[in-house]
Amino acid sequence: MSTYIVAGLGNPGPTYQWTRHNAGFLFLDRLADRENISITKKSFSGFCGELSLAGHRLILLKPQTFMNLSGVSVMQALQFHKLPLSHVIVIHDELDLPFGTVRFKNGGGHGGHNGLRSIMENLGKSDYIRLRIGIGKSLHGDTTSHVLGKIPPEQMEALSRVLDGGIEMFKVMLTEGLPKAMSLYNNKNFLEG
Question: In the chain, which ranges are continuous DSSP H helix?
């Protein structure tokens, strides 16, 4: 049984709860809800929950450090559990993907994402798996207000479908490996039935 740290990125507090930038938190909340567990234990500068899924032990982590210090929380969890970087899965919002798409990626740069930048600064590398939840780009070019903006009503209605699609992908990755999950889902849009 392998142990993975599954870090969903977001900002703490009710102000940010339903913002695009909190896609990582929303994913973990949906997963916890479906698996009937809670992510409420305070540790690693965040909230934690534990889940056994597909023969793996998952430490679900929602850093409460604010996005730009997410790496502090992830590093604490990694050191405590003495895991290699390859056992970290980070779930985050992705501007470069349209809403409705969820894609896996292994390694790569931070692409201007403050949470990923912080993880890279704290861990020194970026050789971890990412599950990127598409939020689309701002039509007006103002990235900050776009990512920190509330998810619009028409997207809120479809959000559970998108998150459930992401959870399905995530389970395939755990059971059949990353290449299989990427080939099955990376070109899919969960809004298209």
Answer: 23-35, 70-81, 114-123, 143-147, 153-176, 178-185
Structure tokens at 173: 């990755």
CB contact set of 123 (below 8 Å; sequence gap of 6+): 71, 74, 75, 78, 85, 88
At residue 142, the pLDDT reads 82
Q: What is the CATH number of domain 3-185?
A: 3.40.50.1470
Domain map of the chain by residue range? 3-185
From residue 92, give the alpha-carbon distance in Å to each of 24, 74, 193: 5, 13, 23
pLDDT category, 193, cuts 50, 70, 90?
low
155 CB-near residues (< 8 Å, 6+ apart): 99
> Active-site residues: which are they?
21
Enter the pTM of the model: 0.96
Q: List b or e across 32-54, with b for residues whose CB sees 16 or more CB atoms inside 10 angstroms.
A: beeeeeebeeeebbbbbbebebe
| Mean residue pLDDT across the chain | 94
Tens of pLDDT along 73-96?
999 999 999 999 999 999 999 999
> Could you give the CA distance from residue 56 to residue 180 in angstroms, rounded to a whole number?
17
**Which whole number is the average pLDDT over 148-156?**
93
Which residue has 């938190």 as its token pair?
Answer: 25
